Amino acid sequence: MRRIILKIFPLLILFFVASCSGYDSRVFASYEDMVKSAKEEVRWIAAGDFKKVMESGDNYYLVDCREQVEFDSSCIKGAIPVPRGVLESEIASKVPRHRIPLYIYCSNGDRSALAAKVLPLLKYSNVRVIEGGFDNWKSSYPDLVENNPVRGAVKAAPKKASGGCGG
Predict the structure, then answer these.
(1) Of 156, 129, 141, nearest in space to 76 by CA
(2) 26-147, which class in CATH?
(3) Per the CB 3.0–4.6 Å rule, which of 10, 64, 96, 97 could disulfide with 79?
(4) Residue 63 β-bridge partners
(5) What is the DSSP letter of 109?
(6) Can you give the pTM of this predicted structure?
(7) Collapsing DSSP states into helix, strand and coil, what is residue 126?
(8) What does DSSP say about strands 145-147 and 61-64: parallel, antiparallel, or unpaired?
(9) Strand duo 74-76 + 145-147: pairing
(10) Within 13 Å of residue 91, how many CA atoms lie on the same side as its CB?
(11) 3-state class of 29 per DSSP?
């Protein structure tokens, strides 16, 4: 009886660990299907509401996940460039504090929705995608667009220190 338990116990543990991992292992027929699913599952913020966040003085990160060449042309003022293709490997160095709200955008919302699906897996707990992306922002708030941004050392600290434990 003891032998049976010793053989079955590791299998049960493996089963429970695998079933409780929470990892999304769905398979999609196309990129469009994957984006559609991501857009249904992420949290959004209207451009006007994000403008209020900018004006509030609250702590936040603003991440531009477009390609570097797109960012180099223009971006939302104060954005941190972290292209979608290298997001997983670079986000921690550019956005080190996981509990501070993180707002993300791309040109139209597709790449940023995919990025927003991944960020909670990297322990970012408060992620929102800016509706309509940079294209919408640029037409709605041209005065809050930075043309040809220069980023020497990318600013990794939030606007204010939070003082919280781990945040």
Answers:
(1) 141
(2) alpha beta
(3) 64
(4) 80, 104
(5) S
(6) 0.77
(7) coil
(8) unpaired
(9) antiparallel
(10) 26
(11) coil
* CA gap 68, 2 in Å, rounded: 60
Query: Closest Cα partner for 162 from 99, 119, 104?
Result: 99
Phi and psi torsions of 103, nearest 5°: -110, 135
pLDDT by residue (tens digit) across 34-69? 999 999 999 999 999 999 999 999 999 999 999 999
DSSP 84: G
Q: How far apart are CA 79 and CA 64, in angstroms?
A: 6
User: Which residues are paired to 128 by β-bridges?
Assistant: 103
**Alpha-carbon distance 127 to 115, whole Å?**
10
Lookup: tokens for 79: 């954005």
Q: What is the dihedral of CA 160, 57, 102, 34, to 10 degrees?
A: -170
Strand 61-64 vs strand 80-81: parallel, antiparallel, or unpaired?
A: parallel
Task: Give me the residue label for tokens 């223009």.
Answer: 74
Question: pLDDT per residue over 118-157, tens digit each?
Answer: 999 999 999 999 999 999 999 999 999 999 998 754 444 4
Q: Which amino acid is at 114?
A: L
- Does 15 have pLDDT greater than 80? no
